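Late entry, evening session. Most of the bench is empty. Finally got around to the prediction I had been postponing all week. Sequence below, unchanged from the version circulated by S.P.
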Amino acid sequence: MVKDRIPQEAIALNLKWIESLETCLAEHGNRTLTKALMKAAGEKCSAQIFDDCRQILDKNPESVDELLDAMNQRRSQNHNLTSLWEKQGNTAHLILEECNCTLVKAGLAKPNPVHCLCSQGMMESLFSKVCRGPVNVELVKSIGNGHDVCEFHVTFEE
C-alpha cells in the first residue's frame, strides 16, 4: 500500500489547528489541566522512544543506565544528534540545541510554552518506566519559552 503525500495545505491547516489549541490552553486553560493534557500527549511519543530503546537493547530497559544508554545510541546512530544524556547520581541531564519534537521538525507545530509541557511529560513517562520511585522533570530552559536551548534535568529514585 502506497501512502499519499500529505498536501502542503493539510500541513498548514494542522499547524494552525495545533497552534490554536495550544494558544487557547495558554490563555484560558487551567494550568493543572493543561499540564495533564500535554503530559498525556507526551506519553504517546515516549512509547515510541521506549520501543526504539527496546530494539536497540534487544530487551526492555530495566534501569536508568540502560535507558540512557539506549536513548543515547538512538540519538547518535538513528538521528545523528550529538547532544547526549549525562547522569550524575540520581540526576540525568540533557541539553538540546534545537527542538527535537517530531511535530516541530515536520512543520506541524511551533515551539511554545504549552508545547514544551508535552516534552516534559514525555521525559517523565520514559523515566517512570524504569524507576520504582518518583521522577521529577525540570525544564530548566526551553526554546518554546524563548531560550536558545532546551535543557532537561531529571531527578529520580531507582
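Two things to note before I forget:
DSSP finds five helices and four strands in the chain.
Residues 8-156 form a domain with the Muramoyl-pentapeptide Carboxypeptidase; domain 2 fold (CATH 3.30.1380.20).
Will write this up properly tomorrow.
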